Amino acid sequence: MPEPENKEEKNFYLKRKQKNQVFPIKGCHNTDWGLKNRLSRIFHPRTGRTLMLAIDHGYFQGPTTGLERVDVTIVPLLKSADSLMLTRGILRAVIPPTYQGGIVLRASGGPSILKELSNENLALDMEEALRLNASAVAVQVFIGGEYETQTVSNLTKLVDAATRYGVATLAVTAVGRQLTRDAKYLRLACRICAELGATLVKTYYVSPDFETVTASCPVPIVIAGGKKIPEQEALIMAYNAVQQGAAGVDMGRNIFQAANPYAMIAALRLIVHENFKPEQAYQFYQERLRKTEEKESQEI
Ligand code: 5RP
Fold first, then answer.
1. Does residue 6 lie in a domain region?
2. What are residue 36's phi and psi, to 5 degrees?
3. Apex CA 10: angle with CA 5 and CA 13, to 5°?
4. Does residue 240 contact residue 210 with C-beta atoms inside 8 Å?
5. Domain extent for 139
6. What is the CATH number of the domain that holds 134?
7. CA–CA dist 175, 24 (Å, integer)
8. Rg over CA atoms, the chain
9. Which of 144, 147, 217, 278 has CA 20 to 30 A from 188's CA?
10. CB of 104 within 8 A of CB of 90?
11. Residue 177 banded pLDDT, cuts 50, 70, 90
């Protein structure tokens, strides 16, 4: 039965203007609803930042330390990650489809650690990305690297394909062995990625002048953790990065290779989402570590 048209019973809130909602993610206000919705799975709507857990290392270096058994070591961490950066192989084989965070799918590949790493091609079809419900697709860009033009072309092709379906593109600024990792280089690399259409950029934290890297990049920057460093130093790095304009972290080894990955990811959340100072977050980490050790010694 159609509803009878009776104006008296309806409420049109005539005195209340419909508000245009501001979309909080840097540089993404002019994008379409689908892309914004996908970005909202990556970036926490309350803070506009993300704790992205990177576990894609196997795509060029095989079973990385800490990732030998993703089902055992990573799946229990998922509830603490806003988003997850990984390959389609691991996603399909190991990650529970009940995971609610954003999926950032590795979309480039080719050479292994035995070859020239910048010689990458696109390694994912957009139909497959949609089938896997990806929020974003990720591509490595080697500015100044041997195959610079090829990797830039990978980025632009991926941006075109992803934009067609409202999927975000994460450009990862790879640093070749021979390149200096400083603010001048990262400003160049991040800005090129954003100019060519990346929706977000993953790069490294550098000091000094990291704030000039984030300021000159018109889209959000998330930082990689890089090689494993002591937990306290990784927390300081994450703190400095977000305070200097990063929209969060996209960390791997400094989480899953930590003495206690559960405590580490929880401590990082406090920095990314609650603006904890590094010393407070480290204290939290140590307390968690102590409690786990006590529990384990009681179980022996
Ligand atoms: C390569 C990558 C990774 O495979 C990975 O995501 C790096 O994360 P982390 O440095 O924190 O271990 O992006 O450049």
1. no
2. -60, -40
3. 140
4. yes
5. 25-299
6. 3.20.20.70
7. 29
8. 21
9. 278
10. no
11. low
3-state secondary structure of 121: strand
Ligand 1 atom having least distance to the Cα of 251: 11
**Beta-strand relationship, 121-122 and 108-109:** antiparallel
Closest C-alpha residue for ligand 1 atom 4:
57
Predicted confidence at residue 294, as pLDDT, reads: 82
Q: How confident is the model at residue 300 (pLDDT cuts 50, 70, 90)?
A: low
Q: How far does the centroid of ligand 1 lie from the alpha carbon of residue 1, in Å?
A: 58
Please tell me the pTM assigned to this model.
0.95
CA of 87 to the centre of ligand 1 (A): 12
Per the prediction, the chain carries an average pLDDT of 95
Tens of pLDDT, residues 205-239: 999 999 999 999 999 999 999 999 999 999 999 99
What pLDDT score does 297 carry?
A: 76
Count of structural domains within the chain: 1
- Write out the H or E segment, with its range, that includes residue 36: helix 33-42
Return the half-sphere exposure (C-beta side, CA atoms, 13 A cut-off) of residue 271: 33
Asked if the structure places residue 15 within a domain, the reply is no
Q: What is the DSSP letter of 259?
A: S
Asked whether residue 8 is assigned to any structural domain, the reply reads: no
Confidence of residue 181 (pLDDT cuts 50, 70, 90): confident
